Amino acid sequence: MVTRRATVVGTDPDVDLGVKLCGILLATPLIPAAGTLAKETLGEVKGVYGAMLPKTVTPRPRAGNPPPRVAEVSSGMINSIGLQNPGLDRFLENLTDYDVGLPLFVSVAADTVGEFVAMCERFAGEERVSAVELNLSCPNVEHGGLQFCAGPGTVREVVAACRVPLSGKPLFAKLTNEGVVNNAVAAEEAGADAVTLINTIPALVLDPRERQVSLRGGLSGPAIKPIALRAVYEVSQVVGVPVIGVGGVTSGTDVAEFMLAGAAAVQVGSGSFVREPQEMLEEFAAYLRKNGLRARDLADALTER
Ligand SMILES: Cc1cc2nc3c(=O)[nH]c(=O)nc-3n(C[C@H](O)[C@H](O)[C@H](O)COP(=O)(O)O)c2cc1C
């Protein structure tokens, strides 16, 4: 297998951070989780992340949900952004914004299978785009949300339909935790090249004084890490395609844990709001060095299953 050594400022040049994901070489296994990287920080991503992944784009612009949209909770946060984005046309017009010297992955969501396919058709011919991640698992929108992860039947239908226009590009299916093993198997059978696990977990915040619901949204952060880790571990034992781990990563040890559990690459979401991903990468490199391992070896390095 061909890999390249990462040239990461602050990490040991002798540590091999490179991984291969669906034939794409990533200089590091870190990827920003969809929707969590501020556009203002695009200049800082090279050398830290192995690929770029912007916020989910939908066929038409979405204003998102009304405020409040975020709440802090123990060991995490709840968000209800509702896929706010400028829509596909504007996204494509500004695609060069993401020319940061990294492979570009795009995340897409839609209300119907036909719209998913139409979006994939548009990206199929985009040279800049290295892979497409289908967001089948957003808990914060009425349509085009969790219904695509309702069960293996719907997962299979949407993945198989999107596979057709994207015959030349890797296709990832991002799944929710519920039913994750069966849904991941269905995604693989329908032609997904990788599965991304997991999206936020449906959650609720109440205001006891006002006796009102303050926020319904998706829980992310350290609170969901053990759940995400289990999803990655169980799914990677039953599918042959790579698993991309996401959920609660805030340190280099977390990255190592996801890769030991079977992840080929790891996305960092809300953790990047509280810690520098660069620091997480340095910690991960230190872990590899201490244990005499390369990033790509970790999936086979777990001594006991
Ligand atoms: C503010 C915010 C916005 C998000 N937007 C998206 C999105 O646009 N598309 C998507 O697939 N996931 C979205 N997510 C989910 C993350 O990509 C990730 O799956 C989830 O937060 C779990 O990872 P974490 O614990 O590292 O944050 C969002 C999460 C947060 C916190």
What's this model, at a glance?
This protein has 8 helices and 13 strands.
List keywords for this structure.
13 strands; binds flavin mononucleotide; 8 helices; TIM Barrel; four-stranded antiparallel β-sheet
CATH class: Alpha Beta
CATH superfamily: Aldolase class I
Strand order of the largest sheet: 3-13-12-9-8-7-6
Q: Uncertain segments of ≥5 residues (pLDDT<50)?
A: 1-9
Q: If you average the pLDDT, what whole number results?
A: 92
How large a portion of the residues is in β-strands, by DSSP E? 15-25%
Number of strands: 13
Distance between the termini: 25 Å
**Individual helix count:** 8
CATH fold-level label: TIM Barrel
Helix content: 25-40%
Shape: globular
Total separate domains: 1
- Supply Rg: 18 Å
Q: Biggest β-sheet: count, sense, barrel?
A: 7 strands, parallel
Hetero ligands: flavin mononucleotide
